[in-house]
Amino acid sequence: MAAEKKTAELITPVLLSGGSGTRLWPVSRALHPKQLQALSGERTMLQETALRLKGPDFAAPMVVCNDEHRFTIAAQLQSVGLTPQSIILEPMGRNTAPAAAVAALTLSEKSPDGLMLLAASDHVIDDVKAFHAAVRIAAKAACEGHLVSIGVTPTRAETGYGYIDRGAGLPSVPGAFAVKRFVEKPDRTTAESFISAGTYLWNASIFLFRAGTYLKELKQYAPEVLEQSRAALAEGRHDLDFLRLDRNTFAKCPSISIDYAVMERTRHSAVVPADIGWSDVGSWSVLWERGTKDANGNVAIGDVIIEDGRGNLVRSDSRLVAALGVENLVIVATNDAVLVAARERDQDVKRIVDSLLKAGRNEASQPSRVYRPWGSFETLHLADRSQVKLIEVSPGCALSLQYHHKRAEHWVVVEGEAWITRGAEAFALKENESTFIPILMPHRLENRNDAPLRIIEVQVGSYLGEDDIVRLEDRYKRTDKP
Predict the structure, then answer these.
(1) H-run or E-run covering 188
(2) For strand 407-415 and strand 434-437, is the pairing parallel, antiparallel, or unpaired?
């Protein structure tokens, strides 16, 4: 982009990472959603989004995310060489208008007229060069006071996306257009008429504007969003490398999208059409469309065998999955759940998640592998009074110094070297060595080496929930709740 740069101003990418991706259950769950996973390549979707917004025209990114994901997001960005200028933690989701407001207020403290590009962290863009070209045009329009949307050239009559009807071109910014109107998700007939008209674009929810321009329009059209966002930021606090918004104040903020709050109401809206290979990867059928297919149109991911089947997406994250004589199905198997759905019904997968939530099932939101700032753990066995976990501790990391009221633990090192604190004792355990942690015994597990540490933990007791943890010391400043 640098060779064609038209302005000395840097653009601050603002990555929004608050979604849970329920239509991609059972792989995507609230505590480990799709943007934190590698669904469309080797890197996670968050990493891919951040990397495409890296370069001489961009400042370091800002991230607005769910509090639960903070350590995973920081670690994923660090692993691809990115240090965000800030990671802002939302105590609860309030949609995109408040998230954009908090980011704009933060940016305006450094640069009142700074350019910001708002983008979801769970979308895919195949043609990054064309995307950068659209961003350059949008930046010019934003410098003239417009709030600019990147509108995607539609490839089909899609009923799952919103649309933007473009108007006349902006005389001073070739390639940018005024906006006639925004249209919510249409029915099939209406979507087909949009494609025939030739002036409608998919609304990809990618926006570029000056921070001050957005705040001015927000004050006019959604003043309560601005007021509560400003208060939540002012009353927030820094926590390690994170900026934590005030919970009580942010809870009062209206939950509203930036489209409804500002873009559909402002008189300064503009759009830049772009043919960039964009997808929101919002369902299993989208992954089937993007996947590598065999001669019968099947997409197989993982340990999968398909015989005499056509048009299926079959994915296994663990054990062998075999499919025989089936057509147009989505079959997804994780360690703790299996989804079987008609491919044409994959938009309704969130109904399964709703049912699980109503039933109080952990499978609705918690993956079988749970991520923590020190690494992760996976439940291998769960029964009355016993649980077996595989615990992985990242190099240089440690669990909190803690104890339990209702369970004892047996630890066996299967890979690496563990440094153990057990009451007044401190000692190292090597592969195939073990120790026992009695009820109420303060203990800590630490990895002081450069290689991963893996242990098997056997829990025995009257209660095995994660809330039976009393933290005495914690380098991550967590409370006594997990």
Answers:
(1) helix 188-197
(2) antiparallel
Q: How far is CA 45 from the centre of its chain?
A: 8
Tell me whether strands 321-324 and 304-307 are parallel, antiparallel or unpaired. parallel
Task: Choose among 38, 39, 78: nearest CA to 61.
Answer: 78
Token pair for residue 91? 């105590």
Strands of 70-140 (E only): list them: 86-90, 115-120, 124-125
Integer Cα distance of 184 and 251 in angstroms? 26
List, for residues 277-325, the tens digit of each pLDDT value.
Answer: 999 998 999 999 999 999 999 999 999 999 999 999 999 998 999 999 9
Average pLDDT score over the chain: 94
CATH class (in words) of the domain with range 369-473 = mainly beta
Separation between Cα atoms, residue 78 and residue 73, nearest integer Å: 8
Helix (H/G/I), strand (E/B), else coil: 180:
strand
The CATH code belonging to domain 2-279 is 3.90.550.10
The letter for the amino acid at 146 is: H
- DSSP structural state of residue 362: G
DSSP 22: G
- Assess contact for 387 and 381: CB atoms under 8 A: yes
Residue 309 — φ and ψ, nearest 5°? -120, 155
